[in-house]
Write a structure and sequence with these properties.
By secondary structure, this protein is α/β, with parallel strands linked by helices. The chain starts with a helix and ends with a strand.
C-alpha cells in the first residue's frame, strides 16, 4: 500500500485540510508529554504541530518512504532541536513498548488502519495517556479509485458524534468525546470527526 501514498507525496501538502485537522487534534492534548506518537504521520503535519506542546520527544511513523522523506526535509527548519524521530514502517502494531507513550495522535488515517489500531494505541499509552484521532463520517465517506480496495473491513465508520466517540470506548478508552472538524475550502466543505479519549 505504500506505493499508493508514495505517488501522492509530492502534492500532499497542497491539501490544507490535513494540517488543519492535525492542529485541531493537537489542540486537545495536554502540554509537555514525555513521548507523543504520531501515527501514519504523512508529511508531518501533526508531528510538527505537536512541538508547541513542548514534548520531550515525538515519534512519527508512516508506511510511505516518500512521505517521510518530505517530512525529514521540512524538519530541518521546523524541528531544529531534533525532537522528532521519523520512521518508515507499519503503524500497526506500533514499534513502541506497552505503556511507553503519553499521547497518541492520528490525523486522517484511521480509515486506512482499521479498528485494530485503536487496540494498539490503548496498549502503548500509559495509564491516563491521551488519545486524539480523526475519522471520516459515514455520511460523507465514499472511497473511490485506487483507494477503494484498501480500506479495512473491521472499522465501523461512524455516522454521528456518539458513534465516533464509541470507537474509543469500545476499544477500552475512557472519557471519550467527539466533535466536528469542518473546513470550507470554497469549492467544497470538508468535515471529519475528532475524537479525544484517555487510556
Amino acid at each position: 500500500m505504500s506505493t499508493l501514498f508514495d505517488a501522492d507525496a509530492a502534492g500532499y501538502d497542497e491539501d490544507t485540510f490535513h494540517p488543519y485537522v492535525a492542529e485541531q487534534l493537537i489542540g486537545g492534548l495536554a502540554p509537555k508529554p514525555d513521548l507523543l506518537v504520531d501515527v501514519a504521520a504523512g508529511t508531518g503535519a501533526a508531528a510538527f504541530a505537536a512541538l508547541r506542546l513542548e514534548p520531550a520527544a515525538v515519534f512519527a511513523i508512516d508506511l510511505s518512504p516518500a512521505m517521510i522523506e518530505i517530512a525529514r526535509t521540512k524538519a530541518a527548519d521546523r524541528d531544529p532541536d531534533g525532537r522528532i524521530t521519523w520512521q518508515v514502517g507499519s503503524a500497526v502494531p506500533l514499534p513502541i513498548g506497552d505503556g511507553e507513550a503519553d499521547a497518541v495522535v492520528c490525523a486522517s488515517a484511521l480509515h486506512f488502519l482499521g479498528a485494530r489500531a485503536l487496540t494498539d494505541w490503548r496498549r502503548v499509552l500509559c495509564p491516563g495517556g491521551k488519545l486524539a484521532f480523526s475519522v471520516v463520517s459515514a455520511e460523507r465517506f465514499r472511497p473511490t479509485g485506487k483507494f477503494a480496495d484498501v480500506f479495512p473491513r473491521d472499522l465501523r465508520v461512524p455516522g454521528t458524534l456518539e458513534e465516533a466517540a464509541a470507537l474509543a470506548t469500545d476499544a477500552g478508552f475512557s472519557s471519550a468525546t467527539a466533535q466536528h472538524v469542518t473546513l470550507d475550502q470554497g469549492d467544497r466543505v470538508r468535515q471529519v470527526f475528532a475524537v479525544f479519549a484517555e487510556a
